[in-house]
Task: inverse folding
């Protein structure tokens, strides 16, 4: 990512991501190993960085946000492990590494996912216990935790996943495709930017702008992912391409063709950029993610 | 259960368990259906009833606890769905009904479990948003949510599950068996009694007694479950027996034999009863669960 601040925040997440892991008994060290394996498999950390960046715009202290940011990455990691399972997308590789169930078996992979999701809320609520005498921050954190649960639960990510697997191999309407994308990917991305705003105590204007940014970035994110499945480089992506086609998944390129999909993605990215324009240099992290996604699909 | 108050609280849970379900879009109605299927499959509701009973001992209002109690049952239900999956215990029946994946398929069952776990935290944090101007209750709820995440996460239920699947077919030490039981089942049961105490604002003495009760009841609970797998009636239990033997699971009867297992269970139940003795009639709900477990294994 072409931004020193993004890279600084990503490094911060990488440095501390395991610090927040609840202490796991040696007797089930495989659980720890399997969770660590996927937590440190080298993601771009876009969600925790976005949350940190949003809260830092309000001048909140980094260390107060960091547990929540890492918790978001725990949720992201759980969702990838379950998504890769044989009963779901049946992927053998992710980011150039074997998927969790290929290394640890399906049973442990399911439990590692369950463990990461549980740990995310354990991390957040444990952190909240430190602010029992700081009602303002306790409220902000409650709002942020609720926002995350909403974006990643049954009216967010999980809903999108269900619609996604149910529409494999079916003729999919525009409305359904939008529903899948809005929930599978965009809802979580919106929720991390909103949660960051809540944690920082953003005013109404900033909170609205973060929402607009998150919505459009999130939609673009999944469309770009769909596009890369068609035009991307397997080595660079670290996973197989043309998978959506094989699974007959509902995607933008399948419904609109490649060129129109790129146009739609670019239009969402432009709207995301507009939302943060008034913040100039303060929006460096937000803009660099847009630049990155644009560079992925410009041919 | 031979207690009017237990039955009243169980009915309360049954009546409201679906009220707290976040609104799920029609476009993924299968997600709603599959979650509802398992949520209403007729469990005894011991965990939510225990939480309610603990909080009611402190005279907290029922409606303030109920969302947390139902959230605990969402967590319990998720754990059963994932536990029954082919990659885990591979069970076709539970409580006399087909297991979730036998009805909805493995992919939806995994996601229904993920959805229930996410919904549990969505329900709790959404409820907490109603108490933004009641710092005392907001604190109590934060403690309760943390306690539940701990009891059901990677230093509780998930840890126990991992140790359980890893020790199938192995000679299992006494220490490991205790670890599995303490985590797989007892940790969650302890955490609902503790969470109920926190929610109600229990004093130190009551909180300690709830802890002792929960610990011993929880351990007895899993030992009785092991025993019933050997001596239980399939029709009454609504599931196959002799499964542990077939999977070569680490159980009390396998390690100690049946008679000694019954003695150990009875001894934990006696300790649980002692912990609540001083509360006389107020402990009706707590005692009736002990009576029920005793009646299951007395021959």
Result:
């Amino acid at each position: 990512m072409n931004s020193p601040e993004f890279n600084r925040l990503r490094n911060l997440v990488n440095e501390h991501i395991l610090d927040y892991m609840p202490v796991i008994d040696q007797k089930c060290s495989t659980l720890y190993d399997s969770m660590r394996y996927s937590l440190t498999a080298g993601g771009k950390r876009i969600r925790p960085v976005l949350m940190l960046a949003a809260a830092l715009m309000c001048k909140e202290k980094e260390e107060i946000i960091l547990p929540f940011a890492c918790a978001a990455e725990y949720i992201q990691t759980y969702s990838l492990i379950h998504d890769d399972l044989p009963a779901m997308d049946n992927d053998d590789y992710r980011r150039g590494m074997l998927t969790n169930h290929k290394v640890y078996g399906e049973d442990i992979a399911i439990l590692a996912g369950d463990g990461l999701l549980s740990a995310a809320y354990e991390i957040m609520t444990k952190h909240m216990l430190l602010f029992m005498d700081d009602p303002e921050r306790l409220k902000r954190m409650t709002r942020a935790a609720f926002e995350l649960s909403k974006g990643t639960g049954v009216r967010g990510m999980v809903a999108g996943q269900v619609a996604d697997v149910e529409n494999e191999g079916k003729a999919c309407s525009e409305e359904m495709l939008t529903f899948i994308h809005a929930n599978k990917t965009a809802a979580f991305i919106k929720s991390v930017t909103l949660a960051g705003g809540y944690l920082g105590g953003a005013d109404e204007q900033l909170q609205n702008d973060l929402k607009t940014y998150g919505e459009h970035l999130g939609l673009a994110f999944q469309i770009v992912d769909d596009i890369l499945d068609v035009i991307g480089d397997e080595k660079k992506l670290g996973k197989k391409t043309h998978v959506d086609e094989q699974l007959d998944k509902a995607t933008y390129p399948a419904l609109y063709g490649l060129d129109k999909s790129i146009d739609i993605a670019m239009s969402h990215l432009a709207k995301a950029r507009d939302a943060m324009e008034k913040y100039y240099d303060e929006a460096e992290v937000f803009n660099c993610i847009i630049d990155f996604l644009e560079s992925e699909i410009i041919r």
Remarks:
- The beta strands of chain B are 93-94, 97-98.
- The longest strand of chain B covers residues 93-94.
- The domain at 4-297 of chain B is CATH 1.10.600.10 (Farnesyl Diphosphate Synthase).
